[in-house]
Design goal:
467 residues, 77% helix, 0% strand, globular, mainly alpha
């Protein structure tokens, strides 16, 4: 295998391990709580500390790679991610685990954009690059989908700390391969770092997540919770003002002038609120309400994982048959139907009665993500595809943060697991309805004028993994 082939391996390892840690922890949260103590709110922070820094820093990390060299930044990000993973595995208490998870998220934010930059540099020919990016995204999609199953197996056989220690050999291999095979990219000294915007973005996400998580624990009229909401509102306003005035904003607001771009980004946000919020609640439902082990819980998610992968394999054909708009609507309808069918079940529900609903959730998600990615990339100029993809990734990770915070708050009270789960299902049905309505808008691409229900372009449709 030549140098660029090994570069593909290294970048796929980096992207894959990042996506794995988005979902692998969900199955282990109950054993973590049993071992280190802490209620639902603390467990929410174990999940969200990672996605908060991941979502908040990914756009700036991409700019940093452009400025000082993607290879150098990628290796540093891999090293940080690996060390933080070891710290998670060694954490003696929840506070250190949460802090280490936040550092993990910083490493993840660096790995994702820089891995794509290295691939673009290694494969200059468009056809070769498209094939490489497809393999890169497929690997990440597989690890993200398989996270709950792998987390259950590792937790049951080696303990919950193994889900973090497994990152160490992957990280070391990725670093060594990158150092030996990858070539450094050119530096763009003029690429600015938007520090005010970055600080405002992180403060907004952190304050909003804190308000929802602690609101579920202490009540939403608690003075500290209300203060956190106020801080989030002020920081969000400051972010918008900063981005509108900055010479080199981390998030160019002009992108949202394209209705197709704005719609795809909004759908990505809403979809992740529903899916990852439900993933968090379902994990606790299987383990606390139905008293299953982590292994059985991981296996319970297997049908959903298989459905996501099958949807990925069929999306291309369905897109050309139905069009992007109708495919998104179909995916949202399947998610809504799965949630509605789950409303009739409580703690004593037999697992076989839940399988079809889990498959519907997974298959619906697997249809939506490639479709919105294709629509989003088709709405911007080719040279802006990197920041466009980064924006969608940021929106989706923000949705994950909000989903875990919101749905976790619903189940945090004594005996609130089942009632909170049902409310979460109703909210998810409502979000799916909004997605269907958004997808029904016949918005054309600002760049091509292609209507939103036309067959999606194949160019770089895999640049964003599913789910």
């Amino acid at each position: 295998m030549n140098g660029r082939g090994w570069t593909l391996v290294a970048t796929s390892l980096g992207f894959g391990v990042v996506q794995l840690d988005v979902s692998v922890v969900n199955v282990a949260i109950n054993p973590i709580g049993a071992d280190l103590g802490g209620g639902v709110a603390a467990l929410q922070w174990v999940v969200n500390a990672y996605t908060l820094t991941f979502a908040g820093l990914i756009l700036t990390a991409g700019a940093l790679g452009d400025r000082i060299g993607a290879k150098r930044v990628f290796v540093a990000g891999f090293a940080l991610f690996t060390v933080a993973s070891a710290a998670c595995g060694l954490a003696p208490d929840l506070a250190i685990l949460i802090a280490a998870r936040a550092v993990q998220g910083i490493g993840a934010a660096v790995l994702v954009p820089c891995s794509l930059t290295l691939l673009n540099h290694a494969y200059p020919a468009a056809r070769d690059r498209a094939r490489a990016v497809g393999l890169w995204a497929t690997g990440a999609s597989t690890t993200l989908s398989a996270g709950p199953l792998l987390g259950g197996v590792l937790t049951a056989t080696l303990g919950w700390r193994a889900i973090f220690f497994i990152n160490a050999p992957i990280g070391l291999a990725g670093i060594l391969i990158t150092l030996r095979a990858a070539t450094e990219t050119s530096r763009t000294a003029s690429r600015g770092i938007d520090l005010p915007g970055q600080l405002a973005a992180v403060l907004t996400l952190t304050a909003l997540a804190a308000a929802m998580i602690e609101g579920g624990q202490h009540g939403f009229t608690n003075p500290l919770v209300l203060t956190a909401f106020a801080v989030a509102a002020v920081a969000a306003a400051a972010f918008l003002v900063t981005e509108a005035r900055a010479a080199t904003p981390m998030l160019p607001l002009t992108l949202f002038r394209s209705p197709a771009f704005a719609t795809a980004t909004t759908i990505g946000l809403l979809m992740n609120i529903a899916f990852y919020g439900l993933l968090f609640v379902l994990s606790l439902f299987f383990q606390q309400a139905q008293h299953h082990s982590a292994l059985v819980t991981g296996l319970a998610f297997a049908p959903m994982t298989i459905a996501i992968i099958l949807a990925n394999l069929t999306t291309s054909r369905l897109t050309h048959r139905l069009g992007t708009r109708r495919l998104i609507q179909l995916g949202a309808l399947l998610m809504a139907a799965g949630c509605a069918a789950l409303l009739g079940f409580g703690a004593t529900a037999a697992y076989p009665a839940l399988v079809v609903q889990l498959v519907a959730l997974g298959y619906g998600l697997g249809l939506i993500v490639p479709a919105i990615t294709s629509a989003l990339l088709g709405s911007v100029e080719r040279e802006r595809s990197g920041v466009a993809s980064g924006t969608l990734n940021t929106a989706r990770q923000t949705g994950s943060v909000l989903g875990v915070a919101l749905f976790g708050a619903l189940i945090s009270g004594p005996g609130a697991l089942i009632s909170g789960w049902h409310i979460a299902l109703l909210i998810s049905i409502g979000l799916a309805a909004v997605i269907i309505a958004l997808a029904s808008r016949r918005t054309g691409s600002a760049r091509t004028g292609r209507p939103s229900d036309a067959p999606a372009p194949r160019r770089r449709a895999a640049a964003e993994p599913s789910p």
